[in-house]
Amino acid sequence: MQRLTQFACVAALFWTGTALASDAVETGTFGKTPVPDSVRALPPPLPTLIRAADVPSDNGKAVVVTWLPDSSTPSFVRYQVGVATDPSGPYYFGGEAPAAGPLVKDDPKIFGWSPADPDHQFLVVSSYMVPPATPDGNPERVELQPDRTYYLRFAVVGDSASAELAAPMSVTPRQNWIKLHKLNNLVFGLFFGVVILSFIEFARRNPNMFIRKIAGLDAVEEALGRATEMGKPVYFVHGLNSMGEVSAIASVNILGRVARRVAQFDTTLKVMNNDPIVLAVSQEVVREACIDVGRPDAYVPDNVMFVADRQFSYAAAVDGMMMRERPATVMLMGYFYAEALLFAETGNVVGAIQIAATDSYTQIPFFITTCDYTLIGEELYAASAYLAREPKLLGSLRGQDVGKAFLIAILTIGTALELAGIHWLTHLVAPL
């Protein structure tokens, strides 16, 4: 009997706790201090320092309202803004923010990185809702227009009471020519542009301007010479990207320089393509290269071929040609995927000198282990400038290197300042 009584007590306690937890979930009060009805019935306090202003650096279709909230404001209240085109109304709903709304320090695009009043809250108003002409319609959203004066009413709304600012605020949104929060992009863009143009002019006066040695490109001459001595073809294998990708453009630029030397050496060049557009561009590049060196007869259209448009069909066909013709040199240029190791292993088996260049970081390890020379990442983009020694390309390359060194210095100095609690440099280069 005693055990039965204990069980009944435990069951009663469990049922009571479950009911209380269910009520808390339904009313949203679980883990919170309930707000008494007497408090909810009182009109909420109005905040102070309520201001309305145009949103800076925009298209003139938004205004912002800021205020300093009262510390005694309950969490259930909402701040609302009504919009009208006449001070006497009617006023339409323009937006609302909760009592714990966003602070001005959360939006540096509007208020900057060092706001004078970081504890102020704000609400951006870009449109207002006009009631429909018919009862069954939806409200019409009307956007604010530039250079037109609007009147705003600010109210604090509770559950059963509200408080409203006595007089409306007038504000006129303005269009701006410049987004000031993007001014850093303009400054850095102009700076890097001047640096690049300066190095282009310097390269014109000094064609032998120093550029860091790239072993894979220095070996191109040796690899083409070896193919000439052995009387075997040179294979130029494009990656799988289309002509719209940077890596494909860079590989075509390299192809032009290689085709010139091959035509001068009177060696066979075979170009493998898996994209029809890349094929057409490659054919034109090779033909122009042969004409430029005075050897138009060296261009054989069938040697610049479309192999296959499927990844592994392309790899299998190229590998089969490698095994049959056993080229002396294989150049793998562009963006590669899983077929990279298939190409490189086959080239290694036939004993070819292999020079690879790719910006596919997942395939670089395979090229490094199987190829004689590998151009890593952006070296693929620098290759055409390195081989051509053309002033515009050389100057652009050198200017970009200076720009990268400048950014590395900014990162280093910015990290040190951040650790010291100084944030101005971080804010200066922030990409807003």
Give a written overview of the molecule.
- By secondary structure, the protein is α/β, with parallel strands linked by helices.
- It has three domains: about 40-175, Immunoglobulin-like, CATH 2.60.40; about 180-195 and about 395-430, no CATH class; about 210-390, Rossmann fold (3-Layer(aba) Sandwich), CATH 3.40.50.
- It contains 13 helices and 16 strands.
- The strands form four sheets. The chain has a six-stranded parallel beta sheet with strand order 13-12-11-14-15-16, with helices on both faces. Strands 3, 4, 8, 9 and 10 form a five-stranded antiparallel beta sheet that branches.
- Helix 11 (about 380-390) packs antiparallel against helix 12 (about 390-420).
- The longest helix is centred in the last third of the chain and has 29 residues, at about 390-420.
- It is elongated.
- The protein starts with a helix and ends with a helix.
- About 30% of the residues are buried.
**Average of pLDDT:** 85
Share of helical residues: 40-55%
The ordered H/E elements are HHEEEEHEEEEEEHHEHEHEHEHEHEHHH
Uncertain stretches: 1-35
Strand order of the largest sheet: 13-12-11-14-15-16
Principal-axes shape call:
elongated
Class derived from helix and strand content: alpha/beta
Biggest sheet details: 6 strands, parallel
The name of the CATH topology of the largest domain is Rossmann fold
Fourth-tier CATH superfamily name of the largest domain: TPP-binding domain
Strand content: 15-25%
- Report the radius of gyration as a whole number of Å: 35 Å
Total of DSSP H or I helical runs spanning 4+ residues: 13
Number of domains: 3
Q: How many individual β-strands?
A: 16
CATH class of the largest domain: Alpha Beta
Give the termini separation. 74 Å
CATH architectural type of the largest domain: 3-Layer(aba) Sandwich
